[in-house]
Design brief:
amino-acid transport, alpha/beta, membrane, globular, Methionine ABC transporter ATP-binding protein, cell membrane, four-stranded antiparallel sheet, six-stranded mixed sheet, binds adenosine-5'-diphosphate
């Protein structure tokens, strides 16, 4: 079953100068992500990857085309309905984006607090998530007391708090050393296998895609220039 589907999606930004043309950040993209897949999107800087992430998560409107998430075309939804769509999509980031003034527990609890979950239920859920990411002994620590890999584990736990069906990973290992990268990739594999969460991985690192993704789209200048099973795409002459 398809969980995310893009049809002729375009996104342009206003011309940077009066004499220039508008920037076509996404220039006619078609994609289908199957439920349960780990789907990779790879491309050099400026290819349009981050723009695509913002469009899928409805943080920005498309210029044209349609994006369907769980069968709902999100390009026609009201701001109120979009909140529901966003809560079904977890996000993790290159710089982790943790709240430095909150403890690990406070960071993971935050989305539950915002969602209005009762206190006792939140405490149980946070403990379960800490256990899942292997940080049960770090709940009272602050982010700056953690290693990069541990911070990303907190980011993953926070992204999973409200039980999304989709996890978007935007350059999630790009700030980590190779060993820590493998560690985080292992955790993402568990998120996919044990929790059945569909993962979309955006990266410029081919090794990440090769070790994690089942399918891959290669982006260049706002377009998908190659699409297929990871093995096939990277074994072509
Ligand atoms: P990537 O994530 O692959 O590095 P981006 O999606 O950030 O690529 O950028 C794609 C293109 O769109 C680039 O040419 C970039 O300069 C342009 N772009 C991205 N965001 C904006 C914006 N908010 N305003 C204007 N141009 C943008
Ligand atoms: P069950 O099939 O028994 O409902 P789940 O597959 O939901 O079990 O959960 C398996 C394990 O993962 C449990 O320890 C559960 O607490 C934990 N878990 C379930 N959903 C999530 C989630 N979205 N994020 C993190 N941990 C979860």
């Amino acid at each position: 079953m398809t969980i995310v589907s893009l049809r002729d999606v375009r996104k342009s930004y206003p011309a940077p100068r009066r004499s220039a043309d508008p920037v076509a950040a996404i220039d006619g993209v078609d994609l289908d992500v199957d439920e349960g897949d780990i789907f990779g999107i790879i491309g050099y800087s400026g290819a349009g990857k981050s723009t695509l992430v913002r469009l899928i998560n409805a943080l920005e409107p498309v210029t044209s085309g349609s994006i369907t998430v769980h069968g709902t075309d999100i390009t026609t939804l009201s701001e109120k309905d979009l909140r529901g769509v966003r809560s079904g999509i977890g996000m993790i980031f290159q710089q982790f984006n943790l709240f430095n003034a909150k403890t690990v527990r406070g960071n993971i609890d935050y989305p539950l607090l915002v969602a209005g979950v009762a206190k006792a239920e939140r405490a149980t859920r946070v403990a379960e998530l800490l256990d899942f990411v292997g940080l049960s002994d770090k709940g009272d620590n602050y982010p700056d007391q953690l290693s990069g890999g541990q911070k990303q584990r907190v980011g993953i736990a926070r992204a999973l708090a409200t039980s999304p069906r989709i996890l978007l990973a935007d350059e999630a290992t790009s700030a980590l050393d190779p060993e820590t990268t493998q560690d985080v990739l292992g955790l993402l594999r568990r998120v996919n296998r044990e929790l059945g969460i569909t993962i979309i991985v955006i990266t410029h690192e081919m090794e990440v895609i090769q070790s994690l993704a089942t399918r891959v789209a290669v982006m260049e200048k706002g377009r998908v220039v190659e699409l297929g099973d990871t093995f096939d795409v990277f074994s072509e002459p």
